[in-house]
Fold this sequence. Notes:
The protein has about 260 residues and is of the alpha/beta class. About 35% of the residues lie in helices and about 25% in strands.
Amino acid sequence: xxxxxxxxxxxxxxxxxxxxxxxxxxxxxxxxxxxxxxxxxxxxxxxxxxxxxxxxxxxxxxxxxxxxxxxxxxxxxxxxxxxxxxxxxxxxxxxxxxxxxxxxxxxxxxxxxxxxxxxxxxxxxxxxxxxxxxxxxxxxxxxxxxxxxxxxxxxxxxxxxxxxxxxxxxxxxxxxxxxxxxxxxxxxxxxxxxxxxxxxxxxxxxxxxxxxxxxxxxxxxxxxxxxxxxxxxxxxxxxxxxxxxxxxxxxxxxxxxxxx
Length: 260
């Protein structure tokens, strides 16, 4: 597993009693190794380079942010080790996305995109771009939850009294301009019609109770909508608990006898 922040710790905790899906090593910066060894105990090896991965490693889970994907992704895939990523928004960079795809294709590994903080992407991916004429994503938060984003420079967030659209455009534009929302936006885009044909709206809503993700998809054979109301991890109020849950499910599916 790459990283040992709030998501990684929740994943590690969720798998402590699992006899099949084991976290054997954690990859972090060298300056963090001593602290992480104290946090993980003796049951997990703490390493600072891809070269130190066990030779029989089958799968690496990234939980450390966009820069970790840039730093380690292609090297891991090129070694024939499949890589699951939580930081999906980094794939809005076409050059990086293609480099990862080439590395995986050349070694026979897989680049696995986790659903993270949202539901419904399985249905969108099942339909595929050939069966979809429209995919939209709406992210809705209380006004002050947008503090620190570009919206803070364009709107009086504290003065918003009714639902207000802060951004409307493509998934690619949203991922670049609102990087804190990039992972969810990118996941929806990659599951369906891609970054340039997925429409995104970001809304400041005084009536919102936490973060809400709304997906709608339409095609000749389907008309689909799904809303996910996310709650944060206690260790990090900016991170959805569902993100960690989806990572645990992904790892369990690698070893499970019955997989859903």
